[in-house]
Specification:
The complex is a heterodimer of chains A (161) and B (193). Chain A has 161 residues and is mainly α. Chain A contains eight helices and no strands. The two termini of chain A are 33 Å apart. The radius of gyration of chain B is 19 Å and the shape is globular. Chain B folds into two domains: 1-96, RNA polymerase sigma factor, region 2, helix turn helix motif (Rna Polymerase Sigma Factor, Chain: A, Orthogonal Bundle); 98-188, Orthogonal Bundle (Arc Repressor Mutant, subunit A). Chain B is an all-alpha fold and 193 residues long. Chain B is built from ten helices and no strands. Classes of the chains: A mainly alpha (161), B mainly alpha (193).
């Protein structure tokens, strides 16, 4: 659905890119019928933006506040969950796991007498580090960096709003 | 000159115990929430009930409000879901009503509408009457876009739809509204708009 009317609405709403915008501006200038339609839509748009909001009853706010008074006061979830408790629980588990691991290693008699005989690995990385591989690696890094930057900027923008 | 507190500042105050400040938030948004509710309910009593319910729900859930988005968008999401639940309940309640009653109700509504048209000869009244005759979703999208200062993305969040779907729906809603206005005003539409 991409009729001239749809394009004109998009133009009025400011949803067109530079090329589309110039294209529709040319059509408005050159075609009298399109110009007439544009002016009509512009008037409609103005009328829509001038629509009046309805007013609730005079006691609306009072009624809401009376109902709200019966509810427990809201508390921010951030303050409700104390981060110190979370960190304490985390620290407890980490210390427990490390302690257990240490105890096991201290009491074990684990040896690998002929380890080198069975396990030989030749990591010849030079053949993998080619210029193409490096370009791919750097390219991926840039993409990840841009995604992260976009995420950070969006968050900042939302905070401003 | 005392500067007006923003929505987020008022929310912070409410969350830190100044619950009376919630009244300021209600006063600030009540007209829009009520209008939006009216788009679904079609009568003032039901709309007021929906709007009140919406503000109470918002108050209860204020602690979960992620302050990265606009409060108004979050509030309109609650209004939309509350209105939908209300309509579903209402549909179930009215399913037992006989056709005769429904017909009478519709006839009264139409005559009241006609009377209203002749009483209020101005473009705003005609526009509001035309909006009342749109589908609830169309009316809500038009209202949010023009009076709620919401972007297509934000309307999408509130109505749980993709921004592109909202864009198409907005276009169709405007077309329908134009048709309704032309039907109501006949040739006068160009003079009035």
């Amino acid at each position: 659905m991409n009729t001239i009317e749809q394009q004109l609405w998009d133009y009025i709403d400011g949803n067109l890119d530079e090329i589309q915008r110039k294209n529709i501006e040319e059509k408005i200038e050159s075609n009298a019928a399109v110009k007439l339609q544009y002016e009509e839509l512009l008037n409609l748009n103005f009328a829509f933006s001038e629509m009046e909001l309805d007013e609730p009853s005079m006691s609306f706010t009072r009624n809401v506040m009376e109902n709200v008074a019966l509810e427990p006061a809201p508390v921010s979830l951030k303050t409700r969950v104390d981060t110190r408790i979370i960190f304490s629980i985390g620290a407890f588990f980490v210390i427990s796991i490390l302690g257990l691991l240490g105890y096991i290693l201290y009491n074990s008699t684990f040896t690998l007498p002929n380890f080198g005989k069975y396990f030989t690995a030749d990591f010849n990385l030079d053949k993998y580090i080619t210029p193409t591989a490096m370009y791919v690696f750097i390219g991926l890094d840039i993409i990840i960096g841009l995604i992260f930057m976009d995420y950070v900027l969006r968050r900042k923008l939302n905070h401003k709003d | 000159m005392k500067q007006e507190l923003t929505d987020l500042e008022l929310i912070q105050n409410v969350l830190t115990g100044e619950t009376s400040q919630y009244a300021l938030l209600v006063k600030r948004h009540q007209r829009f929430v009520f209008t939006l509710a009216l788009r679904f309910a079609k009568n003032r009593e039901d709309a007021e009930e929906i709007a009140q319910d919406c503000f109470i729900k918002a108050y209860k859930a204020l602690g979960t409000f992620k302050q990265t988005a606009k409060f108004s968008t979050w509030l309109y999401t609650i209004t939309y879901t509350t209105a939908m639940t209300f309509l579903r309940k209402k549909r179930l309640d009215t399913s037992s009503i006989s056709d005769e009653d429904t017909f009478l109700q519709l006839e009264n509504h139409t005559s009241a509408f006609n009377a209203n048209i002749y009483e209020q000869q101005n473009s705003h009244a005609f526009l509001n009457e035309a909006i009342k005759h749109l589908m609830p979703d169309d009316a809500a999208i038009i209202t949010m876009f023009y009076k709620g200062e919401q972007s297509l993305e934000e309307i999408g969040v509130a109505l749980n739809r993709e921004p592109n779907t909202i864009k198409v729906k907005l276009h169709r809603a405007r077309l329908r509204l134009k048709e309704k206005l032309q039907f109501l005003l006949k040739d006068e539409v160009k003079e009035l708009l």
